[in-house]
Amino acid sequence: MSASDHLIPVVVSNVVEVNPIIKRFEFKHVNGDELPAFSGGAHIVVEMIDDDTKRKNPYSLMSSPFERDQYAISVRRDDTGRGGSKFMHEQVRPGMEMKISAPVNLFSLDLRARKHLMIAGGIGITPFIAQMDQADKLGVPFELHYAARSVSQAAYMDSLADRFGDHVSCYCDDQGESVDLEMLLSNQPLGTHVYVCGPKGMIERVVETATALGWPAAHVHFEHFLAPPVGEPFEVHLAKAGIDITVGAEQSLLEAVEASGTPINCMCRGGACGQCETVVVACDGEIMHNDHWLDEEQRAAKQRIMPCVSRFRGKRLELDL
Amino acid sequence: MTIQFKDESFRGDFSYANSPSNIPRFPFPFPEDEYMYSTNIEPHHAARAGSPFENAFDVDEHYVAEMKDRALVLAEDPGRCQALPHMETAGWDFLELVMVSKARDYPDLFKLTMDGDRWHWINKPLQIDDTFTFGDSSTLPCHPMEYIGRQVQGDHAILDQRDGNLWMDAGIITAQADWSLDFDIGMNFFEWHAPVPLAHELGVFQRALKFLLTLPQGQPSRRLNWTLTVNPRLDTSPENYPKWGPDKLTVTPENIGEKIHLRVELQTFWRLPRSNAILFPIRTYLMAMNEVVTQPKWGRRLHRVMRDLRPELVDYKGLSRYHPILVEWLSQFDDGAPTSPGIFPD
C-alpha cells in the first residue's frame, strides 16, 4: 500500500516563470473533475517520466485549500540535484499530461492555535501560502516572516503583501535584513504556534531559539523539504526478492527498488513519514542516513534504512525486501 | 426501496432480531479457529456484493431503529456527543464524506445536490430534507458532526493529528462496547488504549499508530473487533453500567442462544481532507447465538475460539461470568470437522 500507487491523472494547465530560478506549475484533472480537498501544508508527489527514468518528487501545494478545480506548486531549479527540478523547468509545458498523488499533510496547522506564526526561508514559502488562505478563512490571526536572498528572489512577496498587508514581512539578505528570532519569539501571545519551513540551518535556529525561550515543543512545528540527494551508484541485494539491483547516481534507493518491480511501502518520499522504513539484513559499509525519521541510536545500529532518501557506500548491503 | 427497515428496539422488550436473509451478511470476525490480537488492518475496498464491505458506509435493515435508539441516548445524556472547539472543520469533512458516499451508494435512499456551497440533502428513510451552506454551522440545527452522526449507523470518533500522535477530540458515541467518550475526550492514542491487556506488550499500538499517522486520503482501511453482549443492547456504556451490567446474571444454559449476542465492530479509518483528522467509524453488528449457529461453519469456529480464548481476554471482554456455560452450549455445534479459511459462511 502506498500513496503513490493511487495516482491522479492531471494536465498541466499553466506554467509561470516566477523568477529566474522558480517556476509555478498548475494542474487540472484530465477529466475536468474536482481534485481532492486538502489542508494547508499538504504536499503532492509528482511523477516525472523522463525517457527511461521515472522520478517522483514531493512538492508542497501552494494553491488555496478551498479551490478544487486546480492545484499549484512551485519548483526551485536545482542544477546540482537529481534532475527532477531540471526536468520540471525544461520539459514540462502546458497541455502535458502527468500523474500526481493525492495530497498528504505532514505539516498541518495546529487548529487549536490562537495565532499562527509562520517563518519561511526561500522556496519554503509555498506551504505557507496555502496555510494563510486556510487561517484567513478560519478567522485565526497569523503572521508570516519570509526570508529570501534578494527582492527578486522573494517569490510571491508582492501578491502576499497585497492580500495580507501587515501580516506579512519580508527580509532580504542582500539588503542586510534578517529576522530577529529572539525578539519575534519573545513577544507572542499565549496559545501561539510557530511553524518554520526553509533551509536546515534556519529550522535549527528557530527550534533552538524557541526552546531556549521556553516554548513548549508541541507549539513548534517544522518541515524539512528534503529532496533525495545524489551520490555514487551502489549495489543492493533484496533478500526476499532474491535479486541484486543497482542504484544510479541520480536515482534514489526507493526508485531503484520500485523500478525492479519489488513491492515497498512509501508515502512522502522525503525522509519524513516513516512508511518506507526497511530492515537491513546485512551491512558491510556505511549507510548515509539522510532521513528525519530514524533516531541516532537506530542510525548507529545500521539495522534500519529509509530508502527514499538514504544511500550506501561499502561492500554489501542486503535489505529485507 | 430495496431495504425493508425494521421497527425494533435495543432496550426494554429487546425486539431486535436479524431477518434470515440478513444473517449470512453478518461480518463474522474470526477468519481462523483461533483468536489473538493482531493489527488486522486491510484496505476498505468494496468487496463481495451484499456484504457489509460492499459500500463505504453500510446501510442495513436496522438503520432506522438504530437512529431512533441514538436519539433516545442523546436525549438522556448529551455528553455522548462532544467536539472540542478546533474540531468543527473535521465535522464538516465527516458530513461531506457520509453524504457523498451514501448518495453515491444508495441513490434510492439518499440524494445530495450541490450548488457551490449551497447543499440540498434528502434522507428518505429518516424523512429529512434540508438545505444548508457547507462550512457554515449556523445553517444547520447543530454541530455538523452531530447532524450527520444522527444519520449514520455506528459510533464515530474523530481523531485530531498533531505531535506525532492522534487525539480523541470529537465523537458521537451512543452504541459503545463499554468505553466512554466523556472520559476519553482529549486523550491521545496510547492513553485511551491504556486499559487493553496484552496488546501493548505485543507492540500492536505502536504499529497501528504509525500506520494511522500516514493514512492517505482516499485510501480508507478497516478491521473487525468483537465482544459479547447480553441482550441486543447497543448502549453498553460505562455511564449506564447499572442498567446492563446485571443482565449478565440472567444468562442460563436454557436461554443462552437468545440472550448472548456476538457483537462485532466494523471499524474503518478515513483521512479527512480539510482538517487532516482521522474519522474512526465503529459500526456495531449484533447477532444472537441462535442466529450465528444457523451457519454451521460459524458454529464450529465460534466454539473453538471461545474454548481457547486466553484468560486475560475473557476477563477484559467481561465474559467471565458466563464463559464456561457458553463454551459448553457451543460445543453441541462443533462436530470436529475442519473449517474453511476466511470469515464468510460456506
Helix/strand structural class of chain A: alpha/beta
**Major sheet size, sense and barrel closure of chain B:** 7 strands, antiparallel
The helix-strand sequence of chain A is EEEEEHEEEHEHEHEHEEEHEHEE
Which series of helices and strands of chain B comes N to C?
EHEHEEEHEEHHHEHHEEHHHH
Structural category of chain B is: alpha+beta
Shape of chain B: globular
Beta-strand percentage of chain B?
15-25%
How can the largest sheet of chain A be summarized?
Answer: 7 strands, antiparallel
Distance between the termini of chain B: 29 Å
Let me know the number of strands of chain B.
10
- Overall outline of chain A: globular
Gap between N and C termini of chain A, in Å? 14 Å
Cα-atom radius of gyration of chain A? 20 Å
**Subunit organisation of the chains:** heterodimer
In the CATH classification, which architecture of the largest domain in chain A applies? 3-Layer(aba) Sandwich
Looking at this protein, list some descriptive labels.
heterodimer, A: 321 residues, alpha/beta, Rossmann fold, Ubiquitin-like (UB roll), 3 domains, seven-stranded antiparallel β-sheet, five-stranded parallel β-sheet, 34% strand, B: 346 residues, 12 helices, 27% helix
